[in-house]
Design brief:
Blueprint lengths: L1 E7 L3 E8 L1 H18 L12 H8 L1 H23 L9 E7 L2 E8 L3 E3 L17 H13 L3 E4 L9 E10 L7 E9 L21 E9 L13 E15 L5 H6 L8 H34 L2 E3 L2 H15 L7 H11 L3 H28 L2 E2 L2 H16 L7 H11 L2 H24 L16 E3 L6 E3 L10 H12 L1
Antiparallel strand pairs: 1-2, 2-4, 3-4, 5-11, 6-10, 7-8, 7-10, 9-10, 12-13, 13-14
Helix pairs in contact: 1-3, 2-3, 4-6, 6-9, 6-12, 7-9, 7-13, 9-12, 9-13, 10-11, 10-12
Length: 485
Amino acid sequence: MGVTIERLPRSLVALEIEVDDERVEANMEKAARRLSQRYKIPGFRPGKAPRAVLERTLGKSALVQEALETLLPDLYSETIAAESIDAIAQPSFELKSMEPLVVSATVPVRPTIDIKDYTALRAPRQTVDRSEEQIEAALTNLRRRYATLEPVERAVQWGDTVRADVTVHVDGQVEEPHVEEGAEFAVLEGTTVSLPGFLDRLIGLERGGPYTIEFELPSDFVASDLAGKTAHYTVTIDEVKEEILPDLDDEFAKSLGDEDLQTADQVRERIEANVLAQAEAAAESAYQEEVLDLLIASSEIDYPEVLVDSEIERMIDQESNHASHTPEQMQVWLDQIGRTAEEVRDELRPRADTAVKRALVLGELASKESVEVDESEVDAEIDRMLDQFFGPGAGMENDQREQFRQMFDTPDSRSQTRHQLQTQATLGRLVEIASEEGEGGEEAPRARGTRRRRRSGEGDAEAEASDEAGTSEPVENAEAEAETK
């Protein structure tokens, strides 16, 4: 057996395999025996028809196909083992010739990643602050949770709640118009009720009707079969209600039921702290993405397209709420969003490609920095997740808590949790490196709870950074996919 190997871009290897005639003949004989058992040949008992008779009856191509079904996997397995080819997915085969038998195979192999001098990466941090507008918006949202609605005799304004009878249909729809009586909904800017543009056209209408409303849907509307078409509404407004917010005073503060909140000033201070914490978390997340993309830009990465395809399928499964598990459910989901499967994959490809690249460079960084996760850290993370459901204290729910622990404490779940912790710690280490300059010479904190074992033998350094060091789920899943291929 002769083999020619060619390295191709995108982590592909092309193999051309020429097979000895003797081996081809032996496999053709085995194929003939299998086919003679499978097919009833007139005049012969099962398994007794000669090969020549089978070729005349079934055609030589049938024997060739049968022989190749067992020969090709054997040839492929022998070749990648002999040539030490690190395949991560199934190859594509092409039959080049029969005499002699020459087969080509294109094989996706493990990615190659060179993150260069990653220790030289630097990115300045932006100052984090909270604006008065953000604070006031958060206070308004809090008061809105305790608001009351009172009927008013005036035209609809933004912020009102409307009760109405609504009939709607769109040009070209074969279904009957959608009718809803006594529908109650809030008229809030930036939100959509029914179809985009409907709420805007309620502004200024008074109680009564029926009103006729017509408008054209956006050309890029998510339901492509409705995009650019005209929507027709018939609306009778039964009631307009105004939202009455409670005053932000000490009485309101006490009504919240928190012993630490007894005055309006204390409520404002809590809101200011929360808004700042959210701003800091958003800034940290943006900084993590920035330094991760800097690492990608300074690295050389070669990876097979099959990793991107796998990430796309994972994203589809997540966004469709697992509808992709069956073809029927998948089609229902596609009909609901007005997209074809190919359109969805094309839309997701850029995101999936970015997720794969981020995962690969993070995996390489974890290897170079020897970021590891102890089993005790996995146990602690499982406990943290359980605390979110049951709280940290003991009680009557201990039995139920233990049942849930068994669900989280499987080998697969532990492996996924371990990987997520490692990804978070690795990203924390990258942030630490990139932010070393511009921090007044102070050493940046390390990712809390995860050890970075130094190759120099200096021992374990306990990581102690904030829990905000994390990364997006697509990054974590893409990396796991790349590692398990």
